[in-house]
Design a protein that fits this description.
Oligomer: homodimer
CATH class of one domain in chain A: Alpha Beta
Distance between the termini of chain A: 62 Å
Number of strands of chain A: 14
Largest interface: A-B, 86 and 86 residues
Number of helices of chain A: 16
Order of helices and strands of chain A: EEEHHEHEHEHEHEHEHHEHEHHEHHEHEH
Helix content of chain A: 25-40%
Shape of chain A: globular
Structural class of chain A: alpha/beta
Strand content of chain A: 15-25%
Chain lengths: 423, 423
């Protein structure tokens, strides 16, 4: 076992506050900075990259047949011998869909389909780490609030591990995501209010009953799970870093994870530059885009978008998100719900990939960035599809309408197909 | 390129009628046996195993990083240089879920989660082959009838390949599956009638307009795609063949594919025995189980089950299905819809795997076979989960009920959790 050396997490130096720079020992339950008192997702895991470089290399990875995030075990803040859920999380396909490329006028367009994770969203990358960290801290019950995907992924990983969960979802969570939760045996609390209400109630409940806290923006380890999407993109592109990575933004944890992954690789010396990161929100809920564009602190926003996974009026990880865009020399923008529905149709019909609304928001943003000349059609771009459209069939139907209905008769079929110029 | 040798399909000797044994050259559009005139899915692809054994070995596979069905290219009836859709089909995870094992009193219980395919069902294995064969035959339009999964998988693979599709679904097809079809840009014809009606209308339309026929039971190449699930099970178990493989049965093509895969491996000399195959239907629609139990020809049955993917009253591949059970010394049985819903709950809560009703029907059957003493708890068993529960959220909700609803108030939360003995 080459990993024995890191049983005591020798590769993790500790946590660092992204505001005041204070370095802290990584202790269970330490989620806020005692030095500056900030609470909004501000601790970062600090690694000893020289230790990691002794444990893993690009060459070793080339022969690693573990097609999950655990191929990057020495880059994760977990003990190598902690029991892990059996679910195959990560190593999602990176496609180069030629049909979509033609549609966008791009030759080097890639789509990372994270809807192919066990519970059908990128959030599985964070949740499996949450469950493992909870196990390391001897917790038996985990809780979180979520617009849906974080919840269903936590419930899935916890079920696979035999742990109990309490999940707080806003009343608008799509049926598919709620069904997943219940099937995974979670205690599901549908909070009759906004995501903000669900988040606040979960925080109080976690305090009261001492459950393990999987709220992604608070728990510093979850970004570490999410960063694996960037590690995979780099490896799947044979360590040729793309010019841009575009991704949707809600709380801000996913974009922060993408950035952390590329930073890790750069510091390890495995890549020689980092990509620019484009963060995309819906115009119906764009507190971070507004803050970015107007170069001011973010302010709470309404949650008026079909893209439920990123309908986050009070983002919980704003600073790391804005840092990812700023430090990568990237950009942010908002797209309309109509553009999101159009992206669902275009991605599906040109590539056979079914993304949920928030899942294709990055792609909708890419289209606009190309129109605006911010991204050139010659550049290498990876659009991350963060979740599967099966989670939100209602909005998919909205995007595409209804099928052609016929009685079982050739005469009627011929008439209707001819009327639609289909034959 | 080690595959150049088979460009002219030197590894395929031809087709053989499973009834009369007639051997036929594999020609485009040849789906029926001219010798005996039978039409119901009776042609089998015949390989030259000595050629295949020169092209691929267990040892080569151990170093093959292609995590899709195309790792078995020399075992597939396609030209190696035919363009292929980019979708990552196959190499789905084979889990050994300890929680489910404990629940079933089994130590060597494996679950093959084929809901992890691109369009979330095992059918992707067949559809991607259909699209490739259509390309080889210079077809530009493909058609099929389906209870849902074959349709959405065909639409996905065809979209990825830039081909047009006409899809006939019965009116009862779940919304999730129809949404997938429309997103993938298929021309969807919702036939207001049974699966049998949809099948008959599609057959007439295919005849009239000359579309490529993906109807699985007719097209002899599709079972060849489905067989890859067996190849993967064997490889993932390090070529230790399980005692049993349990799988749900509708048309009969999937169970036929499972059997064909193990037969191929046995004939290649890669495994030294074959597993017993257990085929499971719902008591609400069990024409093949009834035929098997009463040792008589099958008769059309009603389609009264929530397991829509196997609600097939007139099975289209009955003979290959019954042969799989008979020749493997396996068994068949039917389970109630209640048992299917229970299996959904148990699999989800113990393992974090969300199967659709037909997807978990094999597992429900396994439970009964253990109760009946047909399968022993000590045996090694693989249950194939054929599709993801997100495709049919309505029935999932039926299985699990509704979440706990609370207003955003700790007082109400405490009261309700205490009332449920949850804290």
């Amino acid at each position: 076992m080459i990993y024995l050396e890191v049983i005591h997490l020798k590769h993790v130096l500790g946590l660092r506050c992204i505001f005041c720079g204070q370095e802290l020992a990584a202790k269970p339950g330490l989620y806020t900075c005692p030095a500056c008192g900030r609470k909004d997702g501000i601790l970062d895991v600090v690694y000893d990259y020289s230790v990691i470089n002794r444990l893993i290399s690009r060459e070793q990875l080339a022969h690693n047949k573990d097609n999950s995030i655990f191929r990057y075990l020495p880059l994760l803040p977990i003990k190598p011998d902690t029991p892990r859920p059996h679910l195959r999380v990560g190593w999602s396909p990176l496609y180069r869909p030629s049909g979509l490329g033609r549609l966008m006028g791009m030759d080097k367009l890639y789509v990372k389909d994270d809807g192919q994770n066990p519970t059908a969203s990128l959030k599985d990358r964070a949740s499996i780490i949450a469950v493992i960290k909870a196990k390391e801290e001897n917790a038996t019950t985990i809780a979180c609030s979520s617009t849906g995907n974080a919840a269903s992924s936590l419930a899935g990983s916890a079920a696979a591990m035999g742990m109990q969960t309490f999940i707080f979802v806003p009343s608008r969570a799509p049926q598919g995501k709620v069904a997943q939760l219940l099937i995974f045996g979670a205690n599901v609390i549908s909070v009759q209010g906004s995501y903000e209400d669900a988040f606040a109630l979960s925080a109080e409940a976690i305090d009261k009953w001492g459950w393990y806290n999987r709220n992604a923006a608070i728990n510093p380890y979850l970004v570490e799970g999410k960063k694996t999407v960037a590690l995979e993109i780099a490896e799947q592109l044979d360590w040729q870093v793309p010019d841009w990575v575009v991704v949707s933004v809600g709380d801000g944890c996913t974009i922060a994870g993408v950035w952390k992954g590329f930073q890790d690789l750069y510091r390890l010396g495995w890549i020689d530059r980092v990509p620019k990161i484009a963060g995309v929100q819906s115009t119906g809920c764009s507190p971070l885009v507004d803050a970015w564009r107007e170069n001011r602190p973010w302010q709470p926003a309404a949650e008026n978008t079909i893209a439920d996974s990123i309908a986050v009026g009070v983002p919980r990880n704003p600073e790391k998100a804005l840092m990812a865009v700023r430090d990568s020399h990237g950009t942010m923008l908002a797209v309309s719900d109509e553009a999101i529905l159009a992206a669902m149709r275009e991605l599906g019909a040109s590539s056979g990939i079914f993304g949920e609304p928030a899942g294709v928001t990055g792609l909708a943003g890419l289209k606009l960035l190309i129109e605006q000349g911010v991204i050139s059609q010659n550049e290498t771009v990876v659009a991350i599809v963060t979740g599967n459209g099966l989670k939100d069939v209602k909005n998919a139907i909205e995007a595409v309408g209804e099928p052609l209905k016929v009685v079982p008769s050739m005469a009627e079929l011929i008439t209707k197909l001819q009327a639609g110029n289909l034959v």
